[in-house]
Amino acid sequence: MTKRVLPYRIPAQDVVSAGPWRLVVEDGEVPLPEALADWDYQMDLHVRRTVRVDPDRARKETGLPTGAALMLSAAWTATGSNLSGPAQHVRLTETAEASVELDFRLLGADLGGLLRLDTALLLAERRNDVRPSSPRRAGSVLWSDREVVRLQGDAPQFPMAVLDFSLTSFPDNAAWHLQISGGLESATMGSLLLLVNERNTVTTTAFQNAAKPRPIDRVVLSAVYADAARIMIEHALTREDFAEDAHFPDGSLGATMLSLFDQLFPAQAIADIRLRRSQSPALFTSDLQAAVKIFEVA
User: Fold this and answer.
1) Which domain-ending residue is among 97, 127, 150?
2) SS (H, E, C) the chain
3) What is the pLDDT of residue 39?
4) What angle do CA 149, 98, 86 make, to 5 degrees?
5) Contact 114, 146 (CB under 8 A)
6) Which of 98, 119, 150 delimits the end of a domain?
7) Is the domain of 146 the same as that of 193?
8) Are residues 99 and 166 part of one domain?
């Protein structure tokens, strides 16, 4: 087991007491779950947590002077989009114990995959008046923790946009279109885009209600996900570089395709499925339909 050793003193863990993350919903708040099965890219996440910090003790235990400014920081990282960023910073200059409420909203379009929420107590400014054993650089981490939430399950998830198909080259009456661009090494978030025809109110309403779908919404979403899975798998099978021994970067289209293939066709070889699609496309379609469990209620 590897233990991280910092080149400066850090305070005891109980200098910070962090409460659990909470998800803000229409009816109030609920504990942030380990996975959000009904999440999609149109669903923003509003999260909160209360953190108690003893700044004076943190300074004393690290050798920092009384006036050293500390900062409680929250940051996020999403593996599905390969995006990350700061969420909230709260500067701590007082000496008394402080209760800080971290409260922020993350845009669904920026997320996907695993969402990591990192909280850290940092040295806010560089200090040149401390001992060599004390933290001195701005951003030095004195305490941290991480919460991980899975935002997508077996169903493929991707960015989406709603537009009027009559203004595009797509058929006016088509309900949706999954657009795939770039090679398998390209980032998934930049390669996939689900376009939904705003004229098709049944489909657009289903995505608007994705967090709390009605029975009809579940049917529509199931059909869209099944069709998207078919398009993605067929696209992958046409590529010669799509194989079991291929190594694609994390967050790439190839890695996403391999993960989807393993979910839909566990313990089956890509070459076998590619041959089945070529020799018996109707059977391949039925196999894929069964694999995505179309219209099944979770």
Assistant:
1) 150
2) CCCCCCCCCCCCHHHEEECCCEEEECCEEEECCCECCCCCCCCCEEEEEEEEECHHHHHHHHCCCCCCCEEEEEEEEECCCCEEEEEEEEEECCCCCEEEEEEEEECHHHCCCEEEEEEEEEECCCCCCCCCCCCCCCCCEEEEEEEEEECCCCCCCCCEEEECHHHCCCCCCCCEEEEECCCCCCEHHHHEEEEEECCCHHHHHHHHCCCCCCHHHHHHHHHHHHHHHHHHHHHHHCCCCCCCCCCCCCCEHHHHHHHHHHHHCCCCCHHHHHHHHHHCHHHHHHHHHHHCCCCCCC
3) 77
4) 40
5) no
6) 150
7) no
8) no
- Domain membership of residue 2 (yes or no) is no
Domain that holds residue 36: 13-150
d(CA 176, CA 179): 10
137 plus 187 within the same structural domain: no
Q: Does residue 155 belong to any structural domain of this protein? A: no
Total domains in the chain come to 2
Question: Is the same domain home to 120 and 190?
Answer: no
- Say if residue 26 is in the same domain as residue 132: yes
Sites in the chain below the pLDDT cut of 50: 1-2, 153-156
Domain presence at residue 286: yes
User: Hey, what's the torsion of the CAs at 181, 185, 189, 194, to 10 degrees?
Assistant: 30
6 found inside a domain: no
Could you report the per-residue pLDDT of 78-116, keeping only the tens digit for each? 876 667 899 999 999 888 888 999 999 998 878 877 899
- Rounded (10°) angle between helices 215-237 and 270-279: 100
What Cα–Cα distance (Å) separates residue 49 from each residue in 73, 197, 259? 12, 38, 33
Provide the token pair at 218: 């579940």
